Each structure stands twice: as structure tokens, then as C-alpha cells.
Amino acid sequence: MRFEAMWKDLAPLGRAAHGGYFRQPFTAVDHELRHWFRTAAEDRSMTVEEDDFGNLVAWWGGVATAERPGLLTGSHLDSVLDGGAYDGPLGVVSAFAAVDLLQARGVVPIRPLGVAAFAEEEGSRFGVACLGSRLATGAWSWEEARKLRDRDGVWLRDAMASVLAHPGGTDADHLTRRDPHERRRAWVARVAAYVELHVEQGRDLVERGAAVGLGSGIWPHGRYRFDFTGQANHAGTTRMEDRHDPMLTYAMTALAANKQARLGGHRATFGRIEVAPNGTNAVPSRVTAWLDARAATTPALQELVATVSDQAEQRAGRDGTALVVTPESVSAEVTFDAALTELAGEGHRWPVIPTAAGHDAGVVAQAGVPTAMLFVRNPTGISHSPDERAETEDCLAGVEALADVLERLLR
């Protein structure tokens, strides 16, 4: 097992001077990450597949087919803007390390085992979380995805073309004509089960004194764009009572979201905002803000977003502004496969915990593949931040746990 050596090789890629990570998909850094992945696979004589959407899979024991379905593990290599080192990459490195451990144990797989690195899991560039796994499993169509642009106006297809050998939509947009349901059937037919390891994004395992935990499911969550519009005007000469200021409407909305989330035990975050004309001495004409909302159940999530939207509309009426709310990415509640989770925990006393963070595992589960998750303790509970971390000892315990689960399934 070469976990620490792999981690050392991967660590510098995309890291800023202050320690945060900028590993956005279909960039020069992404190209380096893909090279790292291919090298890790080649070192283990694994066969690498790259689909039209940038998802990578390294196969051990042959390439999975519909006639000989394989097991899949892994995670993603991309990060949020100024993110941490562990969210995603820990699952990929641990998967390769688990292959090392299985080989050292003399395991001969009765079916192929794949290590996956899904593309654009964070949605940090094109705004849709788990975009790679959504496209692979047919949850999203290429017709929808091709309309996506990043903050600089770069189209998804063009960004893919800068990195991938065969980006989605090339060759006369053949993927546009391929039915997403057909793509889902073909993908699911090749995958017998999926097990994803991830650093915990919270303090549940810390409080339980456990290095490793199992996932019970994923909270429903979504990203919603709030477009507030008003009237641009002079910051000095315009009386306060004469203003139609969308910034005020937004400010109240952010406070309302915080209050409603606290009252209901939910999560609500406005973490991104764009202002026009964005001048210090001008009342803005437009404020666009993105709400990340999460709750334990789908009805609770819907009620949270509806309440915040209603309060924002009421405030807009008082401010003389206007509001349009657009859901950009919504993920339903996910419950992981009970039998697979029980098998994964066999012989261990790992706690079974829910997560409010989204994962490719949720998309794969919704596609109909039996899915389980393993979590590795995060001593601070901090994630999506340069302060995110996990102790090496716990990471190695996670590799052992993942290898144990995969060995049961491979034998």
C-alpha cells in the first residue's frame, strides 16, 4: 500500500501559496490531475477509461461490461474555490491504496474493480453539482449541459475540448441524439455496486470517538439563483426614501434564510453574489445571489425555500424591487442500500450516520446501483476550506475499511 507516497505526489497540484486548493474542472490543473490518475493506474497495470464527459475509471481485473458487471469505488479530484485537500481526493487515493492492499492479500477478483474519478463534482465552475456523474448516469442530458457557461462565459463544451480527448458534444453532437435513459441503462448494467470513501464534512465521528463511519443517506439539497433587480442611481444624491435598491432586498433575504434554517434545524447559505454595476458610489441595479439550501427531508427543503422566497418577495414589494427565483440544481433525498451497508459494516462497530453534503454516491444510488459510503474522521469538522484535514492514521484506517468491504464483494 502506497497511500502516503500517492498523497505526497498529489498534494502540490492546484494548491495556492496560502494552502487552499483551486482544482477546477477542464483547466490546466485538471490536466495535471488526470495525468496523476493515469500514472497511478499504470503503476498498477490498470486499464483507464475516459468517457465523453471527463469521468475517469481505472479497471483492475478486466474492464466491466454488461455481461460481466464490475464493482466501482473512488470519488472526485476537483475542489471548490479555495478548498481543502481531502474532499474528494481522499476517496480516489484510498481506492488505489485499497487495490494495493487487496493485491498484497492475494485477492483474485471474480469481477472487475474500478477506481473512479468523477468530473465537476463540486459544481465550482459550471454551477451544477455532480455534473460528471449526472451526465454519465443519464440524470442530465447533454442538451441541458451544453447550455452551461462558467463565470467568464466559457461554454462547457469548449472547456472540455481543452482537456479531453473526446469531449461531449463533438462528432456532430452524437450525445445530443443519445437518449439519457439509454445512457443510464448502459451505465447501470456495467456497475454491480458502488462504494465511496469520503472525509467526513462535520464532527459526528469526532464526537463518537470513531475513525471510520458508514453513511445512512444524504439530505436533499439544492442551489437556487435569486435575481434581484432595482434601479441604478447615484449613491450621494439619491435620497434613501427614493431608492429602489436590490441590495437591501438581498440583505434581508440572507438574514431571513439564516433565521429560517436555524428555526428548523436546516442549512441555508448565500455564499456567492454578483452585483451590477458593482460601483462604490452607485446604488446597484441588479444583485444575483445563490442560495444553497439543505434539509433532512424533501418537504422540509421545499418549505424552507418557499418561506425564504416568500419573505424576499414581500421585502421586494416594500423596496420597489423585483425578484425571480430559479432552481439551478436540486438533488432529492438519498437512502443508501441497506443490505450493502450492513455487509460493509460486518464485523465492525462503525457508526451509521447521515450527511448533509452531496456526493456522486447519491447520483449513482438514484440511478439504481446499490451504493454505500464510508467516512473518515475529520478532527476539526471543517470542510470546503484550507483548514480541512484528516489524520494519516485515520486515513489508513479508512483504506483498511474500504479494502475489507471490497474484498467481501470481490470474493
From TrEMBL:
Listed GO MF terms: hydrolase activity
Database matches in InterPro entries: Amidase_Cbmase, Bact_exopeptidase_dim_dom, Peptidase_M20
UniProt keyword terms in alphabetical order: Hydrolase
One Pfam family hit: Peptidase_M20
Family: Belongs to the peptidase M20 family.
PANTHER family: ALLANTOATE AMIDOHYDROLASE, ALLANTOATE DEIMINASE-RELATED
Protein name, per record: Zn-dependent hydrolase
Native source species: Nocardioides daphniae
Lineage: Bacteria, Bacillati, Actinomycetota, Actinomycetes, Propionibacteriales
